[in-house]
Amino acid sequence: MEREYTPKERAINALERRPPLPGLVPTFELEFQLTQELLGKEFYRGAEVWEPVTAAERQEMIRHNADLYVEVAERLDYAIIMIVGPYEPADIAATANLIRRQVGDRYLLICHGDATFAIPSGSDMMEMAVAFFDRPDEMHQLAKTRVQEALARGKYLREECGLDGFALCADYCFNTGPFLSPRMFRQFVTPYLKELVAGYKEMGFYVIKHTDGNLMPILDQILECEPHGLHSIDCQARDMDMAV
After folding, report:
1. Distance (Å, rounded) from C-alpha 172 to C-alpha 185?
2. Domains of the chain, with CATH numbers?
3. Residue 58 — very low, low, confident or very high, per pLDDT cuts 50/70/90?
4. 144 in helix, strand or coil?
5. Confidence at 244, pLDDT banded by 50, 70, 90
6. CA Rg, the chain, in Å?
7. pLDDT value of residue 236
8. Which residues partner with 209 through β-bridges?
9. What percent of the chain has pLDDT over 70?
C-alpha cells in the first residue's frame, strides 16, 4: 500500500526535481486574493493596516491571518503556504509558529525574501535608470547591503520559526522584455541574486525565484543562480512558452 505524502513532501519532491509522486501535483499561490469570495473573510494586508495598531490588536491580526492561511491551503489543496502579511520578521515568525501549532509540518512555509533590484516604480524610474549609469559604485554598494540584510533576516527566521524557504519576488521584466538589458542585468543583478540564493540554500532554505514578464533574454542568467524553482511562466508576455 502506497503511503500518503504530505503537501510539504510533495512540494520538496518537486523543488528537488525528483520523479513525480502519485496523486496531487503540488501547487501554491504567491497571494490568494479571493478569500472574501471563497470563505467570507479577508487577510489583513498592506503596511498601512499593520502600522497603527496596538500590541494586542497586532497579536489578534497575526492569529487571524495564520488561521486563514491554513483554511485557504486546506480548501485549495496547496502544498506551500506563502506568508505575505504581516511584514516585520518577528510577526512573520509568530505567524509561522501559529501555523505549525495548528497543522504541524504539513505545509512548506515561505515568505518574501528578495533583495535584488526590481523594475522601479513609475515615480522613481528615471532616477534609478540614471543612477545605474552615473553612480554605479553606489548602486553596487546598495545591492551588497541589501543582500547582507536579507541573509541576516533569513538567519533570524530560520532560528525563530524554522521557515522553509523564500519566494524572491523582484519583478525584472515587462511583457516585452527586461527593464535592464542583459549586459546591465549581469552587472547589477546576477552576482547579487547568485549570492542571495547561495546564502539561503546554505542555511537550508528552498528558494523560488518569481518574476513576471518576458524573461527569455535573461533566463540563462537567472538559471545560473540556481534557485530551486522559477515562478511564473507569464503567458501574457512575448516569447514566453512552456514548451521552451
Report:
1. 9
2. 7-231 (3.20.20.210)
3. very high
4. helix
5. low
6. 19
7. 82
8. 168, 230
9. 99
